[in-house]
Amino acid sequence: MQLNLMKLFDGYVRNYHTFNLTVEHGKHSFTMTEIEYFSRLGSMLGYHPFTEDTSSSTRRPMDLSWWGYYEDGYWYGLILHLERENLYKKDEETLEKLFNEREDKPVNVIGIMNVRNRLRVEELVDIAKAKNNSGNALLILKTNSTGRDQLYFDEVYAYFLNMSEVVATKVAYVSDIEGTLYMHFH
Predict the structure, then answer these.
(1) Which of 11, 88, 139, 175 gives 159 a disulfide partner, CB atoms 3.0 to 4.6 angstroms apart?
(2) Statement: the pTM of the whole predicted model exceeds 0.85
(3) What whole-number distance in Å separates Cα of residue 59 and Cα of residue 100?
């Protein structure tokens, strides 16, 4: 079942303040909180979420997966594969994990990555267009408008891809209000 991934992005933006993340939280807190958000969302939609899931013994674990149903000792219907990455140097590896060939091909993929700058955002989108083997992929790329290191990312770019084509884009912004981070559209 294909999901409306841009609607999921809208909900992510509108609900970001409920994460209660602050400028003082470390990268691990951001990762765990965001994965937990999507895990709860999958449960609320009626799917079976798993973290650090492998669909076969030869694959690297997926940060989060949503499965459709369980029957005769097996899980079927890989609805979503989500990867979340903080490290700049692992951005292409993250795309590889999302778009690699596999037996259990997900219907939907989401990659959430911290990205060094706007130029790298564009480079990653081009790489994703070349590697994408999914009709329903969402990249959420976080960077900052200043190009310098700061305590948090203030620009969030969403790219919805169908195979090698960017179908839709959105930009959200992050604000620090008394230390707590809020995400919003202009």
Answers:
(1) 139
(2) yes
(3) 10
